[in-house]
Amino acid sequence: MSKVIVTPTVGRMVHYWPDKSEHIDHNEGQPLSGQIAAVNEDGTVNLQVLDSRGCARSQVRVTLIQDGDEKPTHTFAEWMPYQKGQAAKTEALEAAAKS
């Protein structure tokens, strides 16, 4: 299967992985829910993140990794499996329509 690239847009949901040094309530080994609030020119995103108690906070200039990228050792966000699945289906439909 080829690498699925999802274009970040405002409103999309991602998994947010906090850095170990962050003081944010989260369950070890589980991501937090993040919603893209802005896409920055450098490819980073600004997020509204819900901690494990459901409290919202903002995170700015977060690295958004794509399918197959190496996970950084610092804070990052990644696409949820559902988002990657939807992007793959869309790519397949577009490829079929061209042939």
Detailed description of the structure:
It is a single chain. The protein contains one helix and five strands, in the order E-E-E-E-E-H. It is an alpha+beta fold and 99 residues long. It has one domain. The chain has a five-stranded mixed beta barrel with strand order 1-2-3-4-5. The longest helix has 18 residues, at 81-98. The two termini are 19 Å apart. The mean pLDDT is 90.
In whole angstroms, how far apart are the ends? 19 Å
The total count of helices amounts to: 1
Q: What share of residues are in beta strands?
A: 25-35%
What is the N-to-C succession of helices and strands?
Answer: EEEEEH
Report a brief summary of the structure.
With 99 residues, this protein is α+β, with helices and mostly antiparallel strands. It has one helix at residues 81-98, and strands at 13-17, 32-39, 45-50, 56-65, 76-79.
List keywords for this structure.
1 helix; 5 strands; five-stranded mixed beta barrel; alpha+beta; 99 residues
Task: Tell me the layout of helices and strands.
Blueprint: E1 13-17, E2 32-39, E3 45-50, E4 56-65, E5 76-79, H1 81-98
Parallel strand pairs: 4-5
Antiparallel strand pairs: 1-2, 1-5, 2-3, 3-4
